[in-house]
Amino acid sequence: SQMTTIKQCSINISISNCEFLTDVISGLTQQQKSLPCKYFYDDKGAALFEQITRLQEYYVTRTELAILERYSKEIAQILPESLSIIEPGCGSGKKIAHLLAHMSKVKTFVPFEISTEMLNYSLAHLSPLFPELVIAPLLGDFTDSAMVKQLIKETALNSQTNLVYFPGSTLGNFNTLKAIEIMRNFQHLCGVNGYVLIGIDLVKQRQVLLDAYDDKLGVTAAFNKNLLQRINDELNGSFNLANFNHESRYNEQHNRIEMHLVSLCEQTVVINNQQINFKQGESIHTENSHKYTLESFKQLAAQANLSLEQTWQDDNNYFALCLLRP
Ligand code: AVJ
After folding, report:
1. How far is residue 26's CA from residue 129's CA, in Å, rounded to a whole number?
2. How do residues 114-134 score in pLDDT, each as one tens digit?
3. CA-CA to 293 of 20 to 30 Å: which in 86, 117, 199, 254?
4. Are the C-beta atoms of 221 and 311 separated by less than 8 Å?
5. How remote is the CA of residue 287 from the centroid of ligand 1, in Å?
């Protein structure tokens, strides 16, 4: 509850960091220590992720962009004339520019973001690029189903024909149940005649996956460890980053890449006056990135009442853009 959350915060940590602190302490006091991957993206983390997208080993971003560049005309032809695009978690609005450049039919763009700052940024960045486009920002958390229902009620978004665009294989960060819930939210958002376009990363050779999340230059390691730095900076943490090793692991059972931070020694870390003990070799699980087959994704989507209409892939079958309809 609100009361307990506030009580846990010491005076030198701002109230806005309470949720971060609560999540960190709760994650680090589990049997398998974990931290939510959504906290990777502070300014430093976002910049490191940008660097990741340009790495040799990280095929994800460039492959999706190539698919988009190659097939966006074809995709545009399938879609109806007067269309609004909703992008949940659009961030700075950089990705949508690629799609919009090929889709002259799009009348309205709805950036859907939890951060006001990012919404303002995307507005400022996109409006000069697309002066004709109506930009109608939506403030909220697309993973929160109650909030999405409320927003639909208030805006009547679902009475028009929308394309919900969710690129980057971000869906892969969520466990199966949450991924279904999120796709249900998309199904509600797009309207009965609408569309959902999702980018998914496909199952492939294990080593390709392991390397994509553990690059030679160590950028992904820095990205992973930056989470500990953020805890130090914002929550009075005492992590010594040199005492942890970045690891990418492939979990065969769940078809996912996991990122871990492995403690190199027995150590105690203090976070906001709370002690956390580590054994040597004990890990903090920091991220899941689920990989799909077209079949497994089709079944996942079906559970969200979405049917897979068409897919577009690269020549290596590394990545797929999937068009779904209610
Ligand atoms: C932004 C969630 C798509 O899982 O591939 C990249 C994040 N983590 N390298 C992914 C990430 C480590 C990325 N997503």
Report:
1. 43
2. 888 889 989 999 999 999 999
3. 86
4. no
5. 8
Tens of pLDDT, residue by residue over 172-209, are 999 999 999 999 999 999 999 999 999 999 999 999 99
| C-alpha closest to that of 103 among 135, 125, 81 | 81
The residue among 226, 223, 252, 245 whose CA lies nearest residue 57 is 223
Measured from CB, residues less than 6 Å from any atom of ligand 1 are 52, 60, 168-170, 172-173, 213, 220, 287, 289
Query: Please, which residues have CB within 8 angstroms of residue 38's CB and are 6 or more apart in sequence?
Result: none
Predicted confidence (pLDDT) per residue in 73-101, tens digit: 899 999 998 899 999 998 878 788 888 88
As to burial, measured by CB atoms within 10 angstroms (0-12 exposed, 13-18 middle, 19+ buried), residue 143 is: middle
Checking 276-281 for CB contacts under 8 A at 24+ apart, the result is 276/28, 276/29, 276/33, 278/33
Q: Give the global pTM.
A: 0.92
Tell me how far apart the alpha carbons of residues 266 and 245 are, in angstroms, rounded to a whole number.
13
How far apart CA 87 and CA 110 sit, in angstroms, is 6
Residue owning tokens 């979990």: 251
Mutate to test the pocket of ligand 1, among 37, 60, 249 (most ligand atoms within 8 A of CB): 60
Question: Taking each helix axis from N to C terminus, what angle separates 116-126 and 94-101, rounded to the nearest 10 degrees?
Answer: 40
Across-strand partners of 312?
321
Instruction: Report the distance separating Cα 23 and Cα 231, nearest Å.
Output: 11
